Amino acid sequence: MTGPGAPAGAGRPLSPWHAASWRSRPAVQQPEWPDEEALKRVEATLAALPPLVVAGEARRLTASLAEVAHGRAFLLQAGDCAESFAEFSANAIRDKLKVILQMAVALTYAAGVPVVKVGRIAGQFAKPRSSPTERVGDTELDAFRGHMVNDDAFDPEARRPDPTRLVAAYHQSAATLNLLRAFTKGGFADLSLVHAWNQEFVASSAEGRRYERIANEIDRALRFMAACGIDLEAEASLHQVDFWTSHEALILNYEEALTRQDSLTGDWVDCSAHMIWVGERTRQIDGAHVEFLSGVCNPVGCKVGPRATPDDVLALCERLNPRRVPGRLTLITRFGAGRLTEALPPLLRAVRDAGHPVVWACDPMHGNTFVSDRGRKTRRFDDIMTELREFFAVHRAEGTWPGGVHVELTGDDVTECLGGAEEILEDHLDQRYTTACDPRLNARQSLDLAFGVAELLQGQ
Ligand code: PEP
Ligand code: CO
């Protein structure tokens, strides 16, 4: 389970670590599993199943992210807030991949930087919650924690944590990853199909037409290269893309059971995804989640909210990347529009001055969520773009590289976030609001965002 890429030992901790060492630390946001024995049986089942990814892939992603850390590439991390057992189909996976490929084309073509493509996909089944319970009228039930744990229906039986869901999540992740590998390596991601990624409801919009123009220029460039005698068939990078998987490593029983030791290097790798991250609610420096991430060799992410101090962030860098391996650690800021100009510079300076080679990415979604007058959780496209503009401006002022974006989106024509070029209004939210958790950008809004980010990158 090894291969080329980043050096072995990227995640090897300085103190004794093993895949279960998180168990001696406080683990927040874990469900109360009603039946310990049933959980143990599930852990044994998962531990015997094949890995979803292997160490060599995780190291190759670390190497790609090192390019981002050095300011030579850009990270696009995108996908559902929460994947769903109910909304699972080949078409949904294909359409999500289409919009991410379109965004990558917009970014690469307009800004001229390679894009590292990482999905929030094939494992994003568990959610941290602000409140452990949910109340509707006089009834209070356990909160929905993602389909890996319980069901979203507001019903006591549905909300009971069921560990067999961990196995179901593994199998859905395996099927999803299999299709993603087939699409990205088997012809669908071929640059000659750049037009085919433009879904009908996107193509008819202003962003879709802007994308079409780029696609035409790419066609022309390919014809030009062929006419010059370049053997396009032989250029693998024109026919395949690397598409990586990631999710929040929240339910540590699942992550531990899928953690294996690389027989060649001795590295531990969490084989549930190429990249994993800890959320804003689980990044306690002495907590179980940070302990777990500190010992696996996968590239890891850490969300950073507006309350994080420079000392907090430095401590996380030391704990998660003591060997200062570029690409190992991505810090994903999620402050909310209007809060970066003051709060972000001290963090950037502290990390830079300490010599930590992190990737800085912006999650412009989670600091901009609010509940609409009609009770729908939503986000304004304008707030999302404002946070991105502030992110780029602060990085430019500090001389650091705004390395990436982390967004929640779907390939479907949903009405979950407000605004965008084809404006979605509060009245529209009920029309196609299908998310299992947070509101996502639809494919048009996603492409719109990519063009906006490409312009910001050009000004960088
Ligand atoms: C998420 O990414 O879905 C999430 C819950 O984010 P955060 O931890 O930043 O709140
Ligand atoms: Co979310």
Helical residue percent band = 25-40%
Radius of gyration, rounded? 21 Å
Summed up, the helix count is 12
Shape descriptor reads globular
Total number of strands = 14
Q: Report, as a whole number of angstroms, the end-to-end distance.
A: 39 Å
Structural description of this entry:
With 460 residues, the chain is α/β, with parallel strands linked by helices. It contains twelve helices and 14 strands. The strands form four sheets. It has an eight-stranded parallel barrel, surrounded by six helices. Strands 3-4 form a two-stranded antiparallel ribbon. Strand 1 (74-79), helix 3 and strand 2 form a beta-alpha-beta unit. The radius of gyration is 21 Å and the shape is globular. The two termini are 39 Å apart. Phosphoenolpyruvate (PEP) binds next to loops. Residues 81, 128, 248, 279-281, 303, 334, 366 line the site of phosphoenolpyruvate.
Features:
single chain; 460 residues; alpha/beta; 8-stranded parallel beta barrel; two-stranded antiparallel ribbon; 12 helices; 14% strand; globular; binds phosphoenolpyruvate; binds cobalt (II) ion
